[in-house]
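Lab notebook, design round three. We kept the backbone fixed and only want residue identities now. Task for the bench partner: fill in a sequence for the structure below.
Input structure tokens:
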């Protein structure tokens, strides 16, 4: 949770309600006053003559907030005031706010005092860069520290925060209970969204269809049986020097396509030819093929003379 402090130079007990007042002033960046330390936050420097209008004889209760509008484009935002020391007819604005409002040096703006703003209870922000996530180990503490310089925030604005010589652009995505809320003397929850430049890492995940096909192929090859017949030598003896068929799945790609080779292996190196009577395999096959004894060529032979 974040809690905002009392604005510089003004005590909380010195504030009471005040009247609405509007000013037409020339805008200049704070860097012209050599007060770059005020770049943190959204507080402006008003002309000394304005203090009599915004702070009449009676005291005000809450920090003064203003709506500041580019008279040429109509683009606007909200801010607080840090002091009344500018020349008459001038207002000094943080450089980043000048850029956000598309203001040029000396361009006229309307600065209008607002009524009491609702206190913030919730804020959702989105940083522009992943550096915000990488470089800041405790973002919640950092945000509480830096946002104390913001008197108020407006949903839809892009603000700049400075931390350890780094500038971070932050979108104010949403605020509650209203689109413009005060950060003064209130506790509020902050949600941080993924940075704008965040990219999801590539994922190499097998599809369900591809995984199913692979399992089916593995099951099919597990059932594969090599040739179960008996090989014989020319002499009629059964040979144990048989050939096995092995199926091997070589690769499986992530698109669900399976490539495989059926490899015919070379004969067993230990295979030997044995007489039929000396092999258990021969005995088994002999019983199975009883009555089907091997018979050599039984045809007649002829000589060149025909006899």
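Proposed sequence:
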């Amino acid at each position: 949770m974040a809690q905002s402090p009392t604005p510089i130079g003004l005590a909380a007990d010195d504030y009471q309600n005040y009247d609405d007042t509007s000013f037409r002033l020339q805008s200049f960046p704070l860097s012209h006053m050599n007060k770059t330390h005020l770049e943190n936050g959204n507080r402006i420097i008003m002309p000394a003559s304005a203090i009599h209008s915004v702070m009449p004889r009676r005291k005000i209760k809450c920090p003064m907030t203003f709506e500041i509008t580019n008279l040429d484009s109509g683009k606007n935002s909200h801010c607080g005031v840090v002091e009344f020391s500018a020349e008459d007819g001038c207002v000094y604005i943080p450089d980043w706010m000048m850029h956000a409002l598309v203001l040029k040096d000396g361009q006229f703006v309307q600065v209008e005092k607002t009524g009491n703003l609702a206190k913030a209870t919730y804020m959702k922000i989105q940083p522009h860069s992943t550096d915000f996530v990488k470089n800041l180990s405790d973002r919640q503490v950092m945000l509480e520290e830096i946002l104390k310089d913001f008197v108020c925030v407006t949903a839809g604005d892009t603000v700049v925060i400075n931390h350890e010589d780094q500038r971070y652009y932050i979108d104010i995505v949403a605020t509650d209970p209203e689109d413009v809320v005060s950060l003064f003397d209130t506790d509020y929850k902050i949600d941080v969204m993924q940075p704008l430049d965040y990219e999801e890492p590539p994922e190499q995940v097998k599809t369900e269809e591809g995984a199913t096909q692979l399992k089916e192929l593995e099951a099919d090859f597990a059932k594969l049986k090599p040739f179960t017949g008996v090989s014989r030598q020319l002499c009629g003896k059964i040979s144990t020097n048989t050939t096995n068929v092995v199926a091997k799945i070589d690769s499986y790609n992530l698109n669900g396509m399976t490539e495989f080779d059926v490899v015919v292996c070379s004969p067993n190196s230990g295979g030997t030819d044995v007489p039929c009577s000396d092999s258990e395999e021969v005995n088994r096959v002999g019983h199975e093929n009883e009555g089907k004894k091997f018979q050599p060529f039984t045809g007649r032979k002829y000589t060149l003379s025909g006899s």
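Keep this in mind before ordering anything: Residues 2-192 form a domain with the Barwin-like endoglucanases fold (CATH 2.40.40.50).
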